[in-house]
């Protein structure tokens, strides 16, 4: 069965349709400068397809929350939930086939990326039994899959970019059809944009974006100037779900309206304000009397907290529990060993070194619950420190040694993603093992680039922590400054990492 979604009219006045089943298999990219009608196009697509397919909208500006009243979408206020709660919500929405709008308005850029990544990750990692067809619409996709690093932290960018890459590159087999809209193609990560097979290109003025849009549509460069002349709501369509040749279309009307309607001209008051100087420049009120910004709602408890609360005994029993003896040293040792087993199992995956810390932390939480370790789960910061230590091959027992605590203190002056490299070098030096090769350093750093691995070593040396030198056979020796620990000579191209 073919489901044709009415998108509007062609320039010739014929009906412009979109093949929904084809779209689910091939994904869609929408591009246009601010004011070109991208959000209107997405709203039309969502309204027309709502009866046929489950939907979710990643909404950075809160424009699509009005879909809830007319079409029954569940609006999720991302500001009121933790990242883990949003991951679970993404899983449940997929399982129960509920259309949702993730409202990110009110969050700063970093938290928008983190929460969107958590929600998308929950939908992506759901069990195979729940891989139902689903439209995933991401407005302002250049925010969530930026082509270059910006002011946000590198970790948040990697989390969000990884989630968007999974959506566009691997989502099809899981039933997820990505529909992404961006103001500028030049700001959108190429590996995300390249996975779309359908395109709707709107008004664009910058030469670099017009040239890239023309390339995607198979048009000649001299035809790219046509994108400047497109009116609001007019797009050039191409793709198996739209048209086999570039086709100009005009998007039709929508049933709902955005919550944040565009500003319209409004005449100034006819009567001028009397004594404007006194009114505008009057002394400000005392700080205490100024209206305060509404504090954010407290975060919803995560799934682990809910499960623990449901299993909590009555108040009398709870009070009795508080006076129980603390865990014995044997119990603490067993708990630590099981925690180490979880870390080793995570790092045994060959791709673990190239995954974002947030993704590994989610895996850690699941394994923690499976092991039945209960409360006391480390937070993300604690997990990051454990992961850094484990990647260097240093056990929890070794880390308690005074010498290793000194090494960790020295490593603290480095960026977090380099501290594990320093610990790995320190372990090799203390145990007299060969210096790790560039491939092992690259894996520990989370990259495939050997050049980047060498630059990391150079940076650590510039900070005065190590000294690198070559012996007569071209093998590398690393000496830790002040500690006078030195590795055995090791070939820079050696593949093997340290023994566990």
TrEMBL record:
The keyword Nucleotide-binding applies. The keyword Nucleus does not apply. Coiled coil: none annotated. Gene3D superfamilies: P-loop containing nucleotide triphosphate hydrolases. Signal peptide: none annotated. One of its GO terms (molecular function) is ATP binding. Residues 311-337 are annotated as: Disordered. Residues 5-72 form the Helicase HerA central domain. This is ATP-binding protein.
């Amino acid at each position: 069965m073919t489901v044709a979604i009415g998108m509007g009219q062609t320039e010739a006045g014929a009906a412009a349709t979109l093949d929904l089943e084809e779209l689910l298999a091939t994904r869609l990219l929408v591009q246009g400068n601010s004011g070109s009608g991208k959000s209107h196009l997405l709203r039309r697509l969502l309204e027309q397809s709502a009866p046929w397919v489950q939907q979710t909208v990643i909404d950075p500006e809160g424009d699509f929350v009005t879909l809830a009243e007319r079409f029954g979408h569940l609006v999720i206020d991302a500001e009121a939930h933790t990242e883990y709660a949003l991951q679970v919500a993404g899983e449940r929405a997929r399982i129960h086939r509920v259309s949702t709008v993730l409202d990110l308005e009110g969050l700063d850029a970093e938290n928008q990326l983190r929460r969107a990544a958590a929600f998308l990750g929950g939908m992506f990692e759901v069990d195979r039994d729940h891989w139902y067809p689903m439209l995933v619409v991401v407005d302002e996709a250049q925010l969530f899959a930026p082509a270059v690093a910006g002011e946000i932290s590198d970790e948040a960018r990697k989390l969000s970019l990884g989630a968007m890459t999974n959506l566009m590159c691997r989502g099809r087999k899981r039933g997820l059809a990505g529909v992404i809209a961006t103001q500028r193609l030049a700001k959108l990560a190429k590996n995300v944009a390249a996975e779309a097979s359908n395109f709707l290109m709107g008004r664009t003025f910058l030469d670099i974006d017009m040239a890239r849009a023309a390339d995607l549509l198979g048009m000649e460069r001299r035809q790219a100037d046509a994108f400047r002349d497109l009116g609001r709501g007019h797009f050039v369509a191409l793709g198996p779900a739209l048209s086999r040749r570039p086709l100009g279309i005009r998007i039709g009307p929508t049933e709902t309206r955005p919550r944040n309607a565009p500003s319209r001209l409004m005449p100034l008051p006819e009567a001028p304000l009397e004594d404007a100087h006194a009114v505008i420049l009057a002394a400000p009120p005392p700080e205490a009397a100024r209206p305060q910004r509404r504090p954010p709602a407290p975060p919803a408890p995560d799934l682990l907290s809910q499960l623990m609360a449901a299993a909590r005994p009555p108040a009398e029993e709870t009070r009795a529990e508080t006076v129980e003896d603390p865990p014995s040293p044997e119990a603490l040792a067993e708990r630590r060993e099981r925690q180490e087993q979880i870390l080793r199992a995570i790092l045994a995956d060959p791709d673990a070194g190239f995954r974002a810390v947030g993704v590994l932390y989610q895996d850690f939480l699941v394994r923690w619950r499976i092991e039945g370790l209960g409360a006391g789960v480390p937070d993300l910061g604690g997990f990051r420190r454990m992961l850094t230590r484990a990647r260097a091959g240093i056990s929890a027992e070794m880390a308690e040694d005074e010498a290793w605590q000194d090494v960790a203190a020295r490593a603290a002056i480095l960026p977090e993603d380099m501290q594990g490299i320093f610990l790995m070098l320190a372990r090799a030096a203390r145990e007299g093992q060969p210096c790790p090769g560039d491939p092992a350093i690259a894996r520990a750093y989370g990259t495939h680039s050997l050049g980047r691995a060498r630059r990391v070593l150079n940076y650590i040396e510039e900070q005065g922590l190590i000294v690198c030198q070559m012996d007569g056979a071209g093998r590398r020796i690393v000496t830790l400054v002040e500690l006078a620990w030195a590795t055995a000579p090791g070939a820079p191209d050696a593949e093997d990492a340290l023994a566990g």
